[in-house]
Amino acid sequence: MSQLYKITTVIISFCLLLPLFGKSQNPIIQTIYTADPAPMVYNNTLYLYTGHDEDKSTWFTMNDWKCFSTTDMVNWTDHGSPLSVKCFSWAGKDAWAGQCIFRNGNFYWYVPVNQLNGKGMAIGVAVSKSPTGPFQDALGKPLVNSGGGDIDPTVFIDDDGQAYLYWGNPYLKYVKLNEDMTSYSGDVVTVPLNEKGFNIRLKDADKRPTAYEEAPWLYKRKSLYYLLYAAGGVPEHLAYSTAPSATGPWSYRDTIMTIIKKGGAFTNHPGLVDYKGKSYLFYHNGALPGGGGFTRSVCVDECQFNDDGSIVRIEPSGGIIKATGSIDPFKRVEAETIAWSEGLKTAKNNRTGMYVTSIGNNDYIKVRGVDFGNGAKRFEASAAAIAKGSKIEVHIDSLNGTLVTTCEVKQTGDMHKWMVHSSTVKKVTGIHDLFLVFKGRDGDLFNFDWWKFYSYNGQ
Ligand code: FUB
Questions:
Q1: pTM higher than 0.85, yes or no?
Q2: Which of 113, 137, 275, 395 is most buried (CB neighbours < 10 A)?
């Protein structure tokens, strides 16, 4: 990012977000633009797969997908980019909306990409043994290639083990996936788009039969099947239909989220998941500085159901207030575990893995709900610095809250020569939000890999 762009971005974001410091959680990722959220729960961790709008995009310029995870719904760990268009030898561009699912020891990530043969969008499937990848093309060719509008796949495994893949814009289609998850049986079924199932269309009514636009998301709750989708046309809102089976017949129910007027993007995209006893709706807006229709950002809000199974309308909010867990500072915490940040980027290399980079004076990371228990005596941070005289100030509870330690980040001579830097900590006990504030001269200060505290009993 150019220095001027970065400074402008920081100033604008500071002004926009000033009233929200210490409160805001949405959008949940601030280091890049993210879109098309697809949550997945595995082993008590919520993984979030997203698309990635390139900085300053003026179209859906999307080259790779991203993965993040959380165990508390407020701190998100960046796992980088486990899959890109380049992984599909038959595709050339457009890493659009996908979804990942676990089955029989493998993670299957269904994604639409634009084919090199000029025949438009088709759906591929990538496979990995790990939720954070790396993923590889499972087939070496599209899984679904039915007519150019093959975008936005959603995958779902029913209680009887039958898996379904729905997708499409302007049509809505599905197949029954086989147990191998990389092939399907039977024909591609086109879902009838009629008023009963998907409501009347108010915008561009001559162009499409119903309000259904794109971005289907299949979900089941207490034997009722839900199909959430982007509806409209543009600007899109989120709506849903329900059915007694995964194949319909679908009945239109309601709007879930109206058009986002303030800070919205002209698209929206739902992802609904149950986690730790609650349900969460992921969606996207254009609210980050520099954000808009092609520079979108993923958000999350809690989703509630009425007794009859209908979804309570969701008003986009500042995000999740109450964490569902806490951070243990006496274990190494990756620097890329972030509740909120300003001015930063993340990067990855083979030796270090993910780390935080593009760190300038006064940039910061907020980590929520850090549990110091009976107290901490020493702070450690792994950083690689080319600049002299940089520091990490650690404040609690707010950006200007009590300063519990100042850790000098010594010059290591290279931005990839890592050293552990340490400092003594003033007494801090109990649970606090932590603000790691970076200080130094102009320009990039250092790269930051992880941090950790030591307790009085030496832990
Ligand atoms: O991100 C590209 C496209 O925009 C997705 O495929 C649609 O769902 C819309 O969000």
A1: yes
A2: 113
